[in-house]
Amino acid sequence: MIEINNLTIRFGSGQRPVVRNVSLLIKRGTAFGLVGESGCGKSTVLRAISGLNPNYEGRIKVDGDTLDRQRDRQFFRRVQMVFQDPYGSLHPRKTIRSQLKEPLRNQGLATNSVDVDALLLAVGLDPSLTYRFPHQLSGGQRQRVAIARALVLNPAVLLLDEPTSALDVSVQAEILNLLEDLRKERGLTYLLVSHDLAVVSHMCARVAIMEAGEIVEEVDIERLRKGAVEHGYSRHLLDASRNYGRTH
């Protein structure tokens, strides 16, 4: 569903690349994880796929089609993104109902062509919340709204940029389980960016590990869980994840 070949990204002409020669192949209907420490370039890859950063070298294909640097409307019907901070990605002065209909307006579609109430129920929210504003919802509710908005156009691909890292730990598992259920029900393909190996292990079948703008290793989730990684940075990341939160 997603094919990336030799993706290289620079922030300015003549600058050193922040992403170098990244290549990925993500099968239809699967969840694929891209992990690494903050600043390694993983979210930059996501932004290039989404069209938020059109200045890249290399080739990106979705469902067999090579993407132009400037994405057309049809692209956004197939690919949507869920951001890290649900409060920052929602308009503070628009009701939830208005924001759920915004993708339809952007596509020139009738705003009554999607049952907003049914969509909210699908993400575990009461339809009565549609007339509230983002500040009147909890963090978990806001992220559910952001997921619902991403689903309005019935896309095939969701790009997930640290979708639970801004949430309380008690809410994170609920959102991850929701995303997993939606993937199975709708046949969605996910590319999940995270620094949290536990999140990736919960969601993904395969994982690419990124360091300083490059993919250093790609493994299936069983190998990751067993610690059967080969690259030194992969072992370091795995050890750091296992030791996180322990007292010494």
How do the helices and strands line up, and which of them pair or pack?
Blueprint: E1 2-9, E2 19-26, E3 31-35, H1 42-50, E4 56-62, E5 65-66, H2 73-78, E6 79-82, H3 86-89, H4 96-106, H5 116-122, H6 139-151, E7 157-161, H7 169-186, E8 189-194, H8 197-203, E9 206-211, E10 214-220, H9 221-226, H10 232-243
Parallel strand pairs: 3-8, 3-9, 6-7, 7-8
Antiparallel strand pairs: 1-2, 1-4, 4-5, 9-10
Helix pairs in contact: 4-6, 6-7
GO molecular function: ATP binding; ATP hydrolysis activity
Keywords: ATP-binding, Nucleotide-binding, Plasmid, Transport
Pfam family, one: ABC_tran
What features would you describe in this structure?
There is one protein chain. This protein has a domain at 2-86 and 157-243: Rossmann fold, CATH 3.40.50. The protein has helices spanning 42-50, 73-78, 86-89, 96-106, 116-122, 139-151, 169-186, 197-203, 221-226, 232-243, and strands at residues 2-9, 19-26, 31-35, 56-62, 65-66, 79-82, 157-161, 189-194, 206-211, 214-220. The protein is of the alpha/beta class. A hairpin with a 2-residue loop joins β4 and β5 (65-66). It is 38% helix and 23% strand. The strands form two sheets. The protein has a six-stranded mixed beta sheet with strand order 6-7-8-3-9-10, sandwiched between helices. Strands 2-1-4-5 form a four-stranded antiparallel beta sheet, covered by helices on one side.
The helix/strand order is EEEHEEHEHHHHEHEHEEHH
Spatial strand arrangement across the major sheet: 6-7-8-3-9-10
Quaternary status of these chains? single chain
Would you tell me which CATH topology of the domain at 2-86 and 157-243 applies? Answer: Rossmann fold
Largest sheet: 6 strands, mixed
Uncertain spans: none
Please indicate the percent range of residues in DSSP E strands (runs of 2 or more): 15-25%
Query: Helix proportion of residues, in percent?
Result: 25-40%
CATH architecture field of the domain at 2-86 and 157-243: 3-Layer(aba) Sandwich
N-to-C CA distance: 45 Å
Helix tally?
10
CATH hierarchy class name of the domain at 2-86 and 157-243: Alpha Beta
